[in-house]
Every structure is written in C-alpha cells, then in structure tokens.
Write a structure and sequence with these properties.
Elements (H helix, E strand, L loop, with lengths): L2 H7 L2 E4 L7 E4 L1 H4 L2 H15 L6 E5 L2 H13 L3 E6 L7 E8 L2 E8 L8 E9 L3 H12 L3 E10 L5 H9 L4 E5 L1
Parallel strand pairs: 3-4, 3-7, 7-8, 8-9
Antiparallel strand pairs: 1-2, 4-6, 5-6
Helix pairs in contact: 3-4, 5-6
C-alpha cells in the first residue's frame, strides 16, 4: 500500500472539535502504528535529505511529535516553536489567525545562527496562519525558510497557496484532502 493510503486509513475524523463546524483530523491512531510512523519520518526525511537543511523547527504540540523524529533522522537540531508563554528564555512572538480564532507562537532568540536554513514542520496545513507565523519568526531571527513539511494538507483551505505566495515554497505533504 502507498504511504498516503496507509496514513489515510490511520487518521480519525472528529466532528465539531475544537468548536462546532470544524472537522478535526486526529493523528493519534497514526502515532500508535510504529511501522507507518517510521515510514512517515523516513518519507519526509528522504524528501529533504538533499535540501541542505541546517535545522528543523516544529510547531507545538502535534508538530513536535514528528518534527523531533524527522530532525533526528536528518541528524540536525530540533527547534521548538511554542505557544505564547511557554518558553523560558528570551523569545520573539508572532500572532496569527486560526481557522477558529487567534493565537501566538514564540521562538527563542538564540534558536539558530543567522543564515541558518530551517525546515518548518507541523502535522497539518489548513489556512496557513501557523505556518506563516513560524516562517516570519525564522526570518525575523535571520534564518532562511528552506522548506515546509506537513503530514496532512487540507487543500480546500488557502494554506498551500499562501505559503507559495509569501515564501515562494511548495510545501511538502504526505496526504491531501
């Protein structure tokens, strides 16, 4: 079976979460399958293996799960991008709109050296708000957004087009809805 088909069989739809009208794509069943989980990590890592990536930044919380595994597979540093108020050191903050509200994310000011080529990872691409905010954090610190990685792309929402427009990057994803 193709990897995208395997992933699709392991996703769970949760209606009306986190609020009415939202169909949440739950990756928990995927996490419980070590074979497919490993294939996801290897699939993303192999896609970016020759892209001269220096570090991987992943967005809290579900992005951390695969982000740290992908960084390990690529043998590069892992950078946490956290919700506001969670990082203990000097940080920068970026506010953004979600499909169901507003939020802020932060990154430590010493997360990477200037000129660092950073791969940004999250589990799901929807409106592109979180991914764009993370990209702005990388740029603000003098880094280069070298790529975007997602497990799921909700292509009926504008996230993919937003990243192409703002960062001139075709995001990489494994499953498209």
């Amino acid at each position: 079976m193709r990897l995208d088909e395997e992933i699709n069989t392991l996703l769970r739809d949760v209606p009306d979460f986190p609020k009415p009208g939202i169909l949440f794509k739950d990756i928990t069943p995927l996490l419980s399958n070590p074979l497919v989980r490993r294939r996801v990590v290897q699939g993303v890592a192999s896609h970016f293996a020759s892209a001269n990536i220096h570090a991987l930044a992943a967005v809290e919380a579900r992005g951390f799960i695969f982000g740290s595994l992908i960084a390990q597979e690529l043998n590069i540093p892992f950078i946490p991008v956290r919700k506001a108020g969670k990082l203990p050191f000097k940080k920068i903050t970026e506010e953004y709109a979600l499909e169901y509200g507003k939020a802020s994310i932060e990154m430590h000011t010493d997360a990477f050296p200037s000129g660092c080529r950073v791969l940004l990872h999250d589990d799901l691409l929807a409106t592109g708000g979180t991914a764009t905010a993370a990209g702005h954090l990388v740029q603000h610190l003098g880094g280069v957004v070298a790529g975007y990685s997602f497990i799921i792309n909700l292509s009926f929402l504008p996230g993919e087009e937003l990243l192409k427009e703002r960062f001139k990057i075709n995001p990489h994803y494994l499953v498209k809805f």
